[in-house]
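User: My collaborator sent over this chain with a note saying "see what the structure looks like." That's all I know about it. Can you take a look?
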Amino acid sequence: MFDKILIANRGEIACRVIKTARKMGIATVAVYSDADRNALHVEMADEAVHIGPAPASQSYLVIDNILAAIRQTGAQAVHPGYGFLSENRKFAEALAAEGVAFIGPPAGAIEAMGDKITSKKLAAEAGVSTVPGYMGLIADANEAVKISGEIGYPVMIKASAGGGGKGMRIAWTDEEAREGFQSSKNEAASSFGDDRIFIEKFVTQPRHIEIQVLADQHGNTVYLHERECSIQRRNQKVIEEAPSPFLDAATRKAMGEQACALAAAVGYTSAGTVEFIVDGARNFYFLEMNTRLQVEHPVTELITGVDLVEQMIRVAAGEALPFAQDDLKINGWAIESRLYAEDPYRNFLPSTGRLSRYRPPAERAEPARAVRNDTGVYEGGEISMFYDPMIAKLCTWAPDRAAAIEEMRRALDAFELEGIGHNLPFLSAVMDHPRFASGEITTAFIAEEYPEGFAGVTPDAATMRRLAAVAAHLKMRKEARAAQISGAMPNHRRRISPEWVVFLGRESFPVRISETGEGTQVEMEDGEVLEVRSAWTLGERLFRGTVGESEMIVKVEFIRGGARLRHRGAGFKAVVRSPRQAELAALMPEKAPPDTSKLLLCPMPGLVVALHVEEGAEVHEGQALATVEAMKMENILRAERKGTVSAIRAQPGASLAVDDVIMEFA
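Assistant: Without extra context I'll predict from the sequence alone. Here is the result:
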């Protein structure tokens, strides 16, 4: 077994590998760029080596820099994590030349499966069901349009060396094929250093289901069942679960056997994933093989009890798998929610900044439930524009799917995160969505259920009443504290009024509040009484308690004039006023927001890659105006209406903040 391994990656996956290596008694070496000098993985590792500037192309993707770190530290093996060099044949070969073990597959398997064009041809030869498409090299956008028309729209335009949703576009028309080809090519070049593109038929209403395989150097190959990854946005997975709520035993077995056959055909060893798309009739088609550890591997670990990172290390050291296929059973259900630095209220655009508050729920592993949080950040740390926007992977496990979902709801409720835009409210909304709860999901779930984007959740009437009761309880505690302080001073007494009006946004709830021995009794205008019981004290940011018969966790942030309450994807400014104050507040005029209709604003921190119009140009609705790159993804900004470009305020190469002006319209 190895004495020391180097992790050629960063963030949560580097931290994840370090945890297993530490458990195995193996020393670890971290590498870091300028932007990651104070990163969590650097702090956790036994040693750390600086490898270059912030851009990945000048640090994490530079093979010579990684090799120099290996020589400096004497590491005997390298775990590549995912992304970066994890599926780079030249990197694996360079390690072999140095006499250093690659904790991954042989270079030949990386080359065969890492290239999506080659992998589809090999899959077909191995008897694996594949999607119709054009696997040859595509010269330019005109040829891409021609091929797309021959295959038949819609089509998927994909980077041959791609992964993680990068370099992928769906095209429904010639114009979209032309634009998608160029954007995919650009993203592929910047993310993978390989701009080859292929096109295949896009299967509508598909499920994305993948099989985890594990193979050793002694000819043993097994599959560790499947993961359902259909909740996606822009081809980027958001929520995964294991097993799939859709597969039956026969389909699971057939997919698993085909995945193992493909792995064996290319001489694969280590932990990899064979991805399929599955239609409503459970017909499945090979999509690609990822020859590295997947982001969503924790859900497989939770239902099988197998530490995939440990097995990767043992396989690389020449050990045989300690189990056979019949030993791998499905135990319970696991769900993973990917917490991203993306603002769901701004069409999920990337967000950067400092984590002013980062308090994940407590991890636990109990007989009937488990909570796991894989992360690479900490409170006070910074989310930069240079890397993937993932903050954490929150996982829950329970004996069945309904219990795992409920456990995830509670875990998301208790996850405190402030300082940047993030998708926690959206994840909570999905967990409460009836369609997700039913298991009737496809890769089109987000587009179909949130066609206009995510604007928050409107709770039902009963939940609104409970939130109003919580707000009243907080007010009572605050007033009681003030009365206690004033009562301690000579000649001062303060009486707490029982009559109040609770405002949650625009909705009002006249209430009558009274203290009980165990909490606060809140009587609604129609006579309904809700008793609030909680040990919450002033200064706590999480309210935990019961309201009536319901358990509730509510995030609390006191702001000027009231408090901001957040619960299950909904957020409100809560203001508790006296009846007279409520009457006067109703007479106050509302301030109109500024008019930005004649401005193109940068919707995220990013780099202006290209401008598609000039000053004086007349533009039409939907026309591409500019391309902005953020966190390795290109975003095309389009005109919302007809107009004339009167001024351009930012040029290609400019680094912009949120709401910086790119151009003005007459």
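A starting point for your reply to your collaborator: The chain has a mean pLDDT of 92.
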